[in-house]
Amino acid sequence: MSASTATPPPVQPRDPVDDSQNRRPQQYSLAKGVFGVTAAVVAIAILFALFLPTVFSDVISTLNSTVVNSIGWYYVLLVTGFVVFSIVVAVSRLGSIKLGRDDDEPEYGLLSWFAMLFAAGMGIGLVFWGAAEPLTFFASEGGIPPNAAHLDAPARAQRAMGQTFLHWGLHAWAIYVVVGLAIAYSVHRRRRPVSIRWALEPILGKRTDTWIGDLIDIIALVGTLFGIATSLGFGVNQIAAGLDHLGLLPNSAGVQVVIVLSVTALATISAASGVDKGIKLLSNLNLGLAALLLVAVLILGPTLFLLRDVVQNIGYYLQHFLELSFQTLPFMGDEGASWISGWTTYYWGWWMSWSPFVGVFIARISRGRTVREFITGVLLVPTLVTIIWFTVMGGTALYKSLFEGVDFTGEDGTIDANTALFDTLSTLPLGTVLSGIAIVLVTIFFITSADSGAFVMDMIAHRGDPNPPRLTRIFWASASGLIAAALIWAGSASGAESAGMTGLQALALLSALPFSVVMIGMCISTWIALSREVKIIQRLELRIRQREFVERYSDQLTGTVSDRVSADLASQVDARVQEQVSARLDEHAATTSEQTGPVAEGEQPRRSRNPFRR
Q1: Which PANTHER family match (predicted)?
Q2: Which of 304, 440, 530, 590: disulfide with 94, CB 3.0–4.6 Å?
Q3: How many CB atoms lie under 10 A from the CB of residue 68?
């Protein structure tokens, strides 16, 4: 059959939103450039930390302090902007867009979805700082905010809780919303690969799949790896401190390394099993254990005080939200700048270093939910749970300190963050049992952070493959734990036990700076993409309304017009007939009169013939 006579293939209807038909099929494979550069950066940092731990810590800490002190105002303004962006998108028409096709249903149930995003988003840090941070802001030497040092104890305790909510509330989760929403839209709605670069496609265009996209993925991978390793370091310190507190094992560098390697092995097994098995199971288990510990402390602790405190803390947080959001303490001099950089700015950098991992992960598990449901679930629900968690854990510690005279500070006047939770639990009935539950909880948070992080990093390294190979998932899960173990061991060997982890923490914060620029691009891209789609939907809705109007009123209008026209025609016909009849009668009368003439006397007149009768 010749080309001229061949029947053309049927034209498939094209989704005005999804232009994936115009994009070449994505071939998933290991992005060697992204993987190689990331591995090289991590290897250099680890070797530097292993062989020159003190120099490594000093150089990185100095660089970090210089950068953070210079851009603290930028971080504060940027993260508050993320909160505003999230709320505006959620309440606007943009929030009605579904993250997937219009008929897609959520892949995971609400409880499992919430458990996985919460375990990945907060994880170890929530347990680690639950009692330690409010106590630090209340009583620790150097930890009290400079603008709260003059307050009396009750007011300072309330301010400590409010400051904690700032660091763990809406601002932290808004960072995750920005990254997760941009990726979820590009992956589930636009059918792009699961990768950071494709979230910027609306502004990068054809340059998305070039070296620019590779650079974006490299920044995300480096920040994610260092951020997870830093959090694992916190978890190891707390697990070791808890075992020492229970008298099971001494807290030493050797014990910490063994804990890291053991838990990393469990995380590797979980990562190898995938999201639907290991990660989902552990996340649900973790949520149950966290709820058990929370309820137990609430019941065994000052219950009435904590219930009253929850209500007041919510009000205090809302009342002082704007003040805390823009807090930079410029009139407190060097003391204010040092405190902001050590706490608020540090937290914003830490959340941003975690955001590629958390954003990709929650995007991966959020198909079928609307933008509004996504933002509400990721922003509001965890914030409320965070307020309850810190109120119960931190509020119990503050109650013991204020009303029972328990002194949680050490000899140097500071709060030991590693043992603050266990010290608080020891003041309650069944304190040993609660401490054991807390250790298990931290351990599972350790595992879920490492395995979900490995899953995400492998997706990015394989050009967005939603189901990357098992072997490389094992590699990433092992790498994060080995980095933490190597730095702990190096610090201990050099005599500066905190040198390795301090340097690693600084690297995580430094990696957040370039990624903050990427996040600004994500906000712009998300707004452009959602706005375009809303305009398309509005045009389609207008056409549908016009069609419905025509269908609804066409029969009625046609019948009305037809009746009016028929009535007019009928009246015109009747009038014309009457005119014709009258004219014929007049004409016949005149003709008859002419033909008959006058009637003779005695003669009967002849009847006129009916003109309408045959």
Answers
A1: HIGH-AFFINITY CHOLINE TRANSPORT PROTEIN (PTHR30047:SF7), HIGH-AFFINITY CHOLINE TRANSPORT PROTEIN-RELATED (PTHR30047)
A2: 530
A3: 23
**Concatenated DSSP letters of 31-45:** -HHHHHHHHHHHHHH
DSSP string covering 452-498: HHHHHHHHHHTTT-SS--HHHHHHHHHHHHHHHHHHHHHHHHTT-TT
Q: Which of 364-373, 478-487, 499-508 has the lowest mean pLDDT?
A: 499-508
- In three-state secondary structure terms, 162 is helix
Please name the residues in contact with 38: beta carbons below 8 A apart, sequence gap of 6 or more.
218, 221, 222, 225, 461
DSSP string across 226-289: HHHHHHHHHHHHHHHHHHHHTTSS---HHHHHHHHHHHHHHHHHHHHH-IIIIIHHHHHHHHHH
Q: How many CB atoms lie within 10 A of CB 578?
A: 10
Burial 479-491 (b: 16+ CB within 10 A, else e): bbbebbbbbbbbb
Distance CA 381, CA 495 (A): 44
Pair 458, 476: CB distance under 8 Å? yes
- Scan for tokens 């507190």, then name that residue: 245
Higher model confidence: residue 318 or residue 539? 318
Other CB atoms closer than 10 Å to residue 336's CB: what's the count?
17
Across 149-163, 170-184, 192-206, 215-229, least confident range: 215-229
Least confident interval from 45-54, 291-300, 371-380, 490-499: 490-499
| Cβ–Cβ < 8 Å for 435, 242 | yes
Structure tokens that stand for 352 in this block: 């941003």
pLDDT band for position 526 (50/70/90)? Answer: very high
Q: Which of 159, 194, 193, 196 is nearest to 178 (CA)?
A: 196
Map residue 185 onto helix, strand or coil. helix
Q: Return the amino acid letter for 432.
A: T
**In this structure, which amino acid lies at residue 96?**
S
Angle at the Cα of 67 from the Cα atoms of 65 and 73, rounded to 5 degrees: 105
Alpha carbon distance 525, 196 (integer Å): 12
Q: What fold, for 32-542?
A: Amino acid/polyamine transporter I (1.20.1740)
User: Strand, helix or coil at 98?
Assistant: strand
Q: At residue 610, does pLDDT exceed 60?
A: no
Distance CA 240, CA 248 (A): 10
pTM equals 0.80
Task: Identify the burial level of 434 via C-beta atoms within 10 angstroms of its C-beta, where 0-12 means exposed, 13-18 middle and 19 or more buried.
Answer: buried
Report d(CA 204, CA 611) in Å as an integer: 94
Which DSSP string corresponds to 582-608? HHHHHHHHHHHHHHH-SPPTTPPPPPP
Under a CB-based contact definition with an 8 Å cutoff, are residues 333 and 497 in contact? no
At 458, the amino acid letter reads: D
CA distance 11 to 20: 16
State both tokens at 369. Answer: 């939910």
Chain-centroid distance of CA 200 in Å reads 16
Residue 441 CA to residue 239 CA, distance in Å, equals 10
Query: Which of 242, 222, 220, 240 has the alpha carbon at shortest distance from 230?
Result: 222
Helices 32-51 & 499-596 angle (0-180, nearest 10)? 150
